[in-house]
Specification:
Keywords: Oxidoreductase
CATH architecture of the largest domain: Alpha-Beta Barrel
Largest sheet: 9 strands, parallel
EC number: 1.3.1.-, 1.3.1.91
Number of helices: 16
Protein name: tRNA dihydrouridine(20/20a) synthase DusA
């Protein structure tokens, strides 16, 4: 039985999409916003060095107004750099900042950020304090612990230390991060899920906002979490089955009907038209494989998306895709599939 210390109104709960490196770029986020108007979106993790030392930081920071609420996720281990980047985020109009303390990638570990920062809670507290100086809300996304250490007290101490620096929002991926012996992909599947630890964290620290992430692939399982925590973050399931987000909104009482994929595609065409030839078809098409998830015609839709070429702009390609959806739907009605 899940117990909850706090409001039981699902209207007040947070539904969000996890930041996913190489996946949740601005075009993906625009598409997901069309499907789920109420969810909180996050950028891919962006390092402070990319923003402060890179040639073109604007390409990392720019986004469409439709993406709000949008949180900038950052990776780094230098408070001074975090302070400067927070100012850039404020100037660009982000709704909040998120510190990545969960990524187990070896590449990230070399830069001493991501999940390995869980071993340095005082440094994380310093990073949070620096991020919060400009007034933007700050959250931390982290794991339960490192490698095979299984000690809830260590997790709670980490959260309490960081909270003392001003963070009030913790997004917990309910697995450990194994820094040795597992790839980032296997780190999303092999370490056991412990949702109960996240529930206990909220119970022990009810004054904090605790959001849970990890392992949610269907509406019923995800909705059950709202009885124990303040929010649910959906990861790869939102990418592969984006209508899951709309189904979650409906279960939360925020919409009555699911969106029509053809309407979504028409709105996405309008978005792509504003980019013209500067937006090649593959930069959008790669995010759309889940649009017909589980539906008749999904195979034909996937095959069409795989034909995207950089020589065609996204708007032109999507217009052809819309014709395909119309023909497919008409065949389904005609033949009673």
């Amino acid at each position: 039985m899940i117990e909850f210390n706090g409001s039981t109104s699902t209207q007040e709960k947070t539904l969000s999409v996890a930041p996913m490196l190489d996946w949740t770029d601005r075009h993906c986020r625009y598409f997901l916003r069309l499907i789920c108007p109420s969810c909180v979106l996050y950028t891919e993790m962006i390092t402070t060095s990319a923003l402060l030392l890179g040639r073109d930081p604007e390409r990392f920071l720019e986004f469409s107004n439709a993406e709000h609420p949008l949180i900038l996720q950052l990776g780094g281990d230098d408070p001074a750099a975090m302070r400067m980047v927070a100012g850039m985020a404020l100037a660009h109009g982000y709704d909040g900042l998120n510190l990545n303390v969960g990524c187990p990638s070896p590449r990230v570990q070399k830069g001493r950020f991501g999940a390995c920062l869980m071993a340095a809670p005082d440094l994380v507290a310093d990073l949070v304090a620096a991020l919060g100086e400009n007034g933007l809300p700050v959250s931390v996304k982290h794991r339960l612990g490192l490698d095979r250490e299984e000690d809830y007290a260590v997790l709670r101490t980490f959260v309490e230390t960081v909270a003392a620096a001003g963070c009030r929002h913790f997004i917990v991926h309910a697995r450990n991060a194994w820094l040795k012996g597992l790839s980032p992909a296997k780190n999303r599947e092999v370490p056991p899920l412990r949702w109960d630890w996240v529930h206990q964290l909220k119970k022990d620290l009810p004054h904090l906002t605790v959001e849970i992430n990890g392992g949610f692939r269907d509406v019923a399982t995800a909705m059950a979490q709202f009885a124990a925590v303040d929010g649910v973050m959906i990861g790869r399931a939102a990418y592969h089955h984006p209508m899951l987000l709309a189904e979650m909104e409906r279960a939360l009482g925020r919409r009555e009907a699911l969106p029509d994929p053809r309407v979504i595609l028409r709105e996405l065409i309008e978005y792509a038209e504003r980019w013209g030839d500067t937006l090649p078809a593959p930069r959008v098409s790669r995010h759309l494989h889940g649009l017909r998830f589980g539906e008749s015609g999904a195979g034909a839709w996937h095959r069409f998306l795989d034909t995207a070429e950089t020589t065609e702009n996204a708007a032109s390609f999507l217009r052809r895709g819309l014709l395909l959806l119309r023909r497919t739907d008409q065949n389904i009605v005609t033949h009673g599939q």
